[in-house]
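Below is the record:
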Amino acid sequence: MIDKIVDIGLSKKFDIEFLIANSLLPICEEKLFVAVGCSKKVAKEELQAVFGKPIKYEIYDDTQIQKSLANIKHKQDIYDTATKFLNHSKQNTDKYIENIITKILAIAVSKNSSDIHIQSQQHNCSIRYRVDGELVDLLRLNSKIITAISSVVKLKAGLNISNTRTPQDGSFAIVAQGLELDLRCSFVPNIYGESIVMRIHRQDNMDYNIDRLGFENIENIKDILNQKSGLVIVTGATGSGKTTSLYAMLNYLNRSNKKIVTIEDPVEYKIDNIVQIQVNDEVGLGFENILRNILRQDPDIIMVGEIRDEVSLRLAITASLTGHLVLTTMHTNDAIDTIVRAVDLKAMPYMISSSLRLIISQKLSKKVCQECQTSGCPSCDFAGFKDRVMISESLFVDEKLKRYIEKNYQKTKLTKKLKGRYKTITQKTKELIARGIVVV
């Protein structure tokens, strides 16, 4: 990553194909010279003829140069708009910032990005977007830009624009690339200003078909979901697709003869025919209070966004033992860890064994780019990978496993007892790496 403001306007003096072919990136123009990033010194005479000044070469890795040249026309548009904002009078400048936000969103949507990160640095502000779990550097702008972006986004999200010293969260809807987007915004102060993260939610881009998520034993999973009671836990790290899996299960179960109630923080996607409740501790809608009260709503199925503590686990288990199917998530490394974690949260082993029906542990692994096979190319933004595939393990709780849980076997003994009964995520990942499908 080139950790400085690049004057993207300088690239307009050249044919883009020439810059890409020679791995050249004009960086900035000073009084006595022009700084140019390159992986090797080439085309010196042609560059000096264009600028009429000596060239100061700054050596970077070829991939860094190519990443900076990717989407160059979009970057030029953003840089030009930012320059107009900085040079304009104080009046009516919000239109420039709105334009910048729209252009950034357009790039993020085109790349199927999940988040946009705008961060104050010591000498500039960086703009990045997350694709397939990895942050990609877009460009760096003058530090004043993030202050203006912060004010405009906070205004749209109904937040206090003068508060830059404490964290704030909000959301708003916007149209970009002809698509309606829900943006969840987080503002956190840092030592140079603020860090802004906008999470992009696209209703049109979510596939809630449980048959297409890549689960093995899908018919057995459906059999569990069709039971009238019990606890189903989806586990994995942050960003492993747990919420998508839960929504796919809800979509599969969403029928007119079933009442489904969810407790979420926040409600990620709105689904017809389902009662979705947003946790809000400030107005008395805490998790415990909601879960106690929704049992009086006579639900058939309850979805709890996440098991976070002893109270939430106890209530989820109790609900599953009183005639409700409960779907939820936990943050653990694998299926067996989930059982150990439940015991650590003071749940009685016999209560766990009586309620638990299924644990699905999952992760998202990066797929090898089919265009370049890990070398890096424009198709994958020189990352070597493009898109992700879900890898999961499904642990069904049968009578044998119930006995193991009731005996409170620790992880080592549980692992030994369950060896060979199901294929683990680690085993599946190694197989996919060997076949050249995913990268670590």
Summary: DSSP finds 15 helices and 17 strands in the chain. Residues 24 and 38 are 5 Å apart (CA to CA). The chain has a mean pLDDT of 90. The first helix runs from residue 16 to 22.
